Amino acid sequence: MSRTQTAESVTLGGTHPAAVVDAPGAQPRLGSLTLPARRAGTTLLEVAAAPLNPLDLLIASGAFHSVRHEAPYVPGSECVGVVVDSDRYEPNTWVYAECHASPATPGAFATQVLVADEDVLALPDGIDPVLAAAAGNSGTAAFMPLMENAGLRPGETVLVLGATGAVGQLAVQVARRAGAGRVVGVGRDADALRQVSFLGADAVVQLLAGESREDLAARLAAAAGPVDVVLDGVYGLPLEAAVLVCAPRARLVNIGNLAGATAQLPAGVLRGKQLTLSGFAGMQLPLAAKQPALTWLWAALADGELQVPTRTFNLQELPEAWREQAASPHAKCVVLPNEHLIDEAVHNEHVAARAPRSPDA
Description:
Blueprint: E1 14-20, E2 29-35, E3 42-51, H1 54-61, E4 78-86, E5 94-98, E6 112-116, E7 120-122, H2 129-134, H3 137-149, E8 157-161, H4 166-177, E9 182-187, H5 190-198, E10 203-206, H6 213-224, E11 227-232, H7 236-244, E12 246-254, H8 267-273, E13 276-279, H9 287-302, E14 310-314, H10 318-326, E15 332-336, H11 339-349
Helix pairs in contact: 3-4, 3-9, 6-7
């Protein structure tokens, strides 16, 4: 895919198909979106690929701690698309964009979206647009905590809690490519853990229902030895066990709490081992702060050194994608509001096509 791509004729502003969440807890439905005329400082895109993130579902549920929308809105927090109109980017330029979805600012699950210029980055040449989108939020949530917050160094041992999700799978690969000496993935699904091993984990540990913190810690120690860096996407008891197997001065970064909103961490262990525990929230950072991570991720994708399992859906299938994401699909669900753009990218630049989604996927 070249940096510019000829797109079919599109309308500036106007009404376009879009997914709509009507109220907290409602499932998305297919509706329409009326965009205002583009103003200075914004870019109008035709959306090619919009990943579905767990955060999108959490915000729509009304249970997210920072954002709640009572009025109808178009969800979608990121996308790859083609520039229709902009003061900063040439028309037909392929770009990545972050979208701050709200009733006032529609998100990416629409055929067109308006975004602030500072929330747009041009894509490099030669990258699959679906994979570039899929590695956006998930990739930065893997790369930045490991490489920037934790400062992963070559030869260190990395423990990934929640390794079977999209972020965890990327984290295993990032750690391996960055020179980690040993990478151990932890998750609940045995089949998904086999995929984690294929992606580069030296060992995997399956979480077992009802297991004690001490028993899990013993199995983690056997698989990993002393751990230098923990990327924690689950919190709760798995983090409690991970703390017990940390090496002195280990760094732990929390990015989620799928296993529980609380964890009991012995103060003596934190102080005695001089551990550093921090949190990462990508939505609190501007896109400019993520650009180095995205540049690294996109280069690795273009070189074939990262794999991102994806499942693609057209816009009408978004409710199905929503249900799959809620069931933890162990792959990135990506919505294609304008499938012709992906077809053209594959045809014109011979971008490797992804395997078709099976009827029962």
